[in-house]
From TrEMBL:
<protein>
    <submittedName>
        <fullName>Gfo/Idh/MocA family oxidoreductase</fullName>
    </submittedName>
</protein>
<dbReference type="GO" id="GO:0000166">
    <property type="term" value="F:nucleotide binding"/>
</dbReference>
<feature type="domain" description="Gfo/Idh/MocA-like oxidoreductase N-terminal">
    <location>
        <begin position="5"/>
        <end position="123"/>
    </location>
</feature>
<comment type="similarity">
    <text>Belongs to the Gfo/Idh/MocA family.</text>
</comment>
<dbReference type="InterPro" id="IPR051317">
    <property type="entry name" value="Gfo/Idh/MocA_oxidoreduct"/>
</dbReference>
<dbReference type="Pfam" id="PF02894">
    <property type="entry name" value="GFO_IDH_MocA_C"/>
</dbReference>
<feature type="domain" description="Gfo/Idh/MocA-like oxidoreductase C-terminal">
    <location>
        <begin position="138"/>
        <end position="342"/>
    </location>
</feature>
<dbReference type="Pfam" id="PF01408">
    <property type="entry name" value="GFO_IDH_MocA"/>
</dbReference>
<keyword id="KW-0560">Oxidoreductase</keyword>
<dbReference type="InterPro" id="IPR004104">
    <property type="entry name" value="Gfo/Idh/MocA-like_OxRdtase_C"/>
</dbReference>
<dbReference type="InterPro" id="IPR000683">
    <property type="entry name" value="Gfo/Idh/MocA-like_OxRdtase_N"/>
</dbReference>
<dbReference type="InterPro" id="IPR036291">
    <property type="entry name" value="NAD(P)-bd_dom_sf"/>
</dbReference>
<dbReference type="GO" id="GO:0016491">
    <property type="term" value="F:oxidoreductase activity"/>
</dbReference>
Length: 344
């Protein structure tokens, strides 16, 4: 195996090129094969990665699986089952973009295939490496907030004219519940543990798929009997987005006001401060919190160690199945206007 990670990338759109290829370049990996039928995207891949081979379909790329260290599946969510199944059967180690699949049953089937193939599957839950997530985890571990009773996170945008793409138009595999909801739920579970009950409100205001999402998750009780309730929101028709994150405990609160350049009236609180990530708040008193080290490229550094046998799987596919079960419950809750209880 060469020093540089040799990558086959399925899809070269907003996820494949805009996220995965960017992070792969940052960690010194080499994209050597790309699957796309779009001439403009093929030209972009050839410009970005001189000498790259452009394949018209997944089987063509997988014919060269032995030349690759990892296959990254960045195709539309509705294609994940087919593409991951083919890649595992070809002997490849696989990174699949989130969500793992459109339903919990599909996700569980893929997780089983990955396990049977020698644990060669992981899921791109890169938001575990967000500075705010890392910083918040440090605060929780240090006990700065005391006993937390509520976690709020918003992923909101002001996009009154929607984009015309599969994420907005595919009512089975698109929509903000599966897209951003997969990140929001994973973040909540990683911080506060399993979900016992789910209440959801889902609407499609400007697109065929959901573009207005609210989830209320009641996490399993802690040993002392206390519980955390997570309120998670994603929306595309939000004229005043944010604040991004608010965590409430009996010793104080953690507040993150802005997020990745999204327009919000709360951003003024953080203007000109690049060393801190949010605020530790007690009423009208607020203290900036030093940003924890780390970032999204660390996911692919972990992938490199994983495929070389020197590190664990970056994200266990079983975690993605847990998230999928919560998202399935959210659909049921919204459809039947009731709270859904999950099995322990």
């Amino acid at each position: 195996m060469t020093d540089a990670l040799r990558v086959g990338l399925v899809g070269y759109g907003s996820a494949g090129r805009g996220i995965h290829a960017r992070l792969l370049r940052e960690v010194g990996a080499e994209v050597v094969r790309v699957v796309t039928r779009n001439p403009a995207r093929a030209a972009a891949a050839e410009q970005d990665w001189p000498g790259v081979a452009v394949d018209p379909d997944v089987p063509s790329l997988l014919a060269h699986a032995g030349e690759l260290d990892v296959v990254v599946v960045a195709s539309p969510t509705g294609d994940h089952v087919e593409h991951v199944t083919r890649a595992l059967a070809a002997g490849a180690s696989v990174v699949v973009d989130k969500p793992l699949a459109t339903t919990a049953d599909e996700a569980a089937a893929l997780a089983r295939l990955g396990a049977e193939a020698g644990d060669r599957l992981t899921v791109f839950q890169n938001r575990r490496w967000d500075p705010e997530q890392l910083t918040l985890r440090g605060l929780l571990e240090a006990g700065e907030l005391g006993t937390v009773h509520r976690f709020e996170r918003r992923w909101e945008r002001w996009r009154p004219v929607p984009q015309d793409r599969w994420k907005e138009n595919d009512t089975r595999a698109g929509g903000l519940l599966l897209d951003l909801g997969a990140h929001l739920v994973d973040s909540a579970v990683q911080l506060f543990g399993p979900v016992a009950r789910v209440h959801a409100e889902l609407r499609n205001l400007t697109t065929p798929a959901e573009d207005d999402v609210f989830l209320a998750l009641t996490h399993a009780a802690r040993p002392d009997g206390s519980t955390v309730i997570s309120h998670l929101q994603a929306g595309a028709l939000v004229g005043a987005p944010g604040p991004r994150t608010r965590v409430l405990g009996d010793r104080g609160a953690y507040l993150v006001t802005s997020f990745e350049g999204e327009a919000t009236p709360f951003a003024a609180l953080d203007e000109g401060d690049d060393a801190h990530e949010g605020w530790l708040v007690h009423g009208d008193e607020r203290v900036p919190v030093p940003r924890a080290p780390g970032g999204h490229p660390d996911f692919y550094r972990a992938v490199a160690a994983w495929v070389r046998g020197t590190g664990p799987v970056p994200v266990d596919p079983a975690d993605a199945v847990v998230t999928a079960r919560v998202l399935d419950a959210a659909r049921l809750s919204a459809r039947e206007h009731r709270t859904v209880t999950l099995d322990a």
